[in-house]
Write a structure and sequence with these properties.
- By secondary structure, the protein is of the alpha+beta class.
- The longest helix has 20 residues.
- It is built from 15 helices and 20 strands.
- The chain is globular.
- It is 37% helix and 21% strand.
- The strands form 6 sheets. It has a 6-stranded mixed beta sheet with strand order 1-4-8-5-9-19, with helices on both faces. The protein has a 4-stranded antiparallel beta sheet with strand order 13-15-11-16. The chain has a 3-stranded antiparallel beta sheet with strand order 6-7-20.
């Protein structure tokens, strides 16, 4: 009996000790400049998915991604996901989704890494200190559009496989990639592809990893939830054409006045949502969750300074984090048809369209939110007794996503963070929306983790977006360690 126990212990020790992490880390360190050069080449491509005039660049970005995966030995496919219909009725080809596979050992787990290589719009004149499409290294920060969202994390995952292969070290798990080019505009065509391939590409996938998010502070983090997004257009239409305010002002009931009146009824000055049924649907904050929020590293004063405000809705950490992550909010984004150019213009708009969104959380349902918002705004509008017409439409209905923090994927994440950074990670949520997470969950039934390497101050979607050298390089080491930790998860 003792011999068997000794053999088993020896086998376990051999398995653990065979992970050559020091060799892998050293390779990353010695190839840091090569990895940064690749990121420089990727950032130079203006892969703005919102600008159809950049579609050629976006196609080129997908080709570069496929080429990079192929060069390190991946079995690569470029999946045609159809066309996009433009506002003028014409169509344009969507960028192909790149998939790749490394290894097909049935005795190993298979992980699928999701990422995107399209970016938000960026121009130097928007307030960038550097050319947004020329990666610029300033004090260890790599500035450029898409550097953090999401090109560096995608490359860090590719480098992870590349490092294992360069050292002729067997991957501890099979790795698949699914990289898209339309995430910033709603992932057109991706949901249908996932549904179509759930019994083929995803059939042998055990776990899905998403690294399209960031840390909350300087402490590494694991992300276990995101808010959803219900985006609305509310249109008020009155006269048949725009009118001169000097000639017609005081004689017509103006659509803009109606619009401001109904928008004012969406949310109170203190942030309370006034739409009946919204707040009542929110999942209760448990004692366990409250305690977890208490332990998260988050500096309220630094947060205020970073965004440039003197006062926030809430003064304590737990309330701020809870309302950033797990409570809904109403945000008014703009009014189309209103005069917003410099100078003066004495016009009464004939038609105005307000754009606002409600970030939704468990246990809210987009279809119910659509009905609640539509019914409420029509009731508010009816009280104004206006002859103008109101039309409310929901154009996005993305659901929230929430994972089980006790799942072995998160235990593996804690172990990998501990190995690389020698700290325990924060367990956090994202206030934004990553719709593909919920799609993966609902359509494939696979377990998902969000494993970020982006910094808390990377400026995603903003001017001067950056990824620090530290996060890029140490993040690659984190991914290397994580694959090994996943391989150690006990099979049921």
């Amino acid at each position: 009996m003792m011999n068997i126990i000794t053999f088993v212990c020896l086998l376990l020790w051999t398995t653990v000790s065979s992970f050559r992490f020091d060799d892998l880390k050293q390779y990353v360190d010695t190839h840091e400049e090569d990895f940064i050069e690749t990121l420089r080449q990727w950032v130079a491509v203006e892969s703005d998915s919102s600008d159809v005039t950049k579609r050629t660049d976006l196609h080129r970005m997908m080709d570069m991604t496929a080429e990079k995966l192929g060069l390190i030995g991946g079995r690569v496919e470029m999946v045609d996901i159809g066309t996009q219909t433009l506002t003028n009725g014409s169509t344009i080809a969507l960028p192909k989704v790149v998939t790749a596979q490394f290894g097909n050992d049935s005795s190993k787990y298979t992980v699928c890494v999701y990422g995107h290589v399209d970016v938000q719009p960026a121009k130097k004149e928007d307030g960038w200190a550097t050319d947004p499409y020329e990666l610029t290294d300033i004090n260890g920060n790599l500035y450029g559009r898409g550097a953090s969202d999401n090109k560096a994390p995608v490359l860090a995952w590719i480098h992870t496989v590349e490092v294992y292969k360069a050292l002729n070290i067997e991957l501890p798990v099979n790795v698949k990639f699914i990289i898209e080019g339309m995430e910033e505009t709603g992932s057109n065509g991706l949901d249908a592809m996932i549904v179509a391939q759930k019994d083929s590409f995803f059939s042998d996938v055990d776990y899905i990893i998403i690294s399209d998010c960031g840390w909350l502070s300087r402490r590494p983090a694991l992300t276990y939830g995101t808010r959803g997004n219900c985006y609305f257009f509310a249109q008020v239409e009155g006269p048949k054409q725009d009118l001169h305010s000097g000639v017609y002002g005081g004689t017509v009931i103006e659509p803009m006045t109606d619009m401001i009146g109904i928008l004012d009824k969406l949310i109170s000055p203190s942030g309370k949502i006034l739409i009946p049924g919204i707040r009542e649907a929110v999942a209760h904050l448990s004692d366990e969750e409250w305690k977890m929020y208490q332990d998260i590293e988050f500096d309220v004063e630094n947060y205020k300074e970073k965004i440039g405000v003197s006062e926030l809705m809430y003064s304590n950490k737990v309330d701020l984090l809870a309302h950033r992550w797990r409570h809904p909010t109403v945000s008014i984004h703009g009014i189309e048809g209103a005069f917003s150019a410099p100078g003066t213009k004495t016009v009464i708009p004939a038609k105005v369209t307000a754009k606002f969104s409600i970030r939704q959380v468990p246990n809210m349902d987009p279809a119910m939110v659509e009905k609640q918002v539509t019914d409420y705004l029509h009731s508010v509008f009816a009280k104004r007794k206006s002859p103008n017409k109101l039309n409310v439409t929901m154009v996005i209905g993305a659901k929230p996503w929430l994972a089980d923090i006790n799942h072995p994927l998160y235990e593996a994440g804690k172990a990998a963070v501990k190995r690389v950074f020698d700290v325990e990670p924060d367990l956090i949520r994202e206030g934004g929306t990553i719709p593909v997470a919920r799609t993966f969950q609902d359509e494939t039934g696979k377990s998902i983790i969000m494993l970020p390497i982006g910094g808390f101050d990377d400026g995603l979607h903003s001017q001067n977006e950056k990824m620090s050298r530290y996060n890029y390089i140490e993040g690659t080491k984190l991914f290397i360690a994580y694959l090994n930790e996943v391989s150690q998860i006990k099979k049921l």
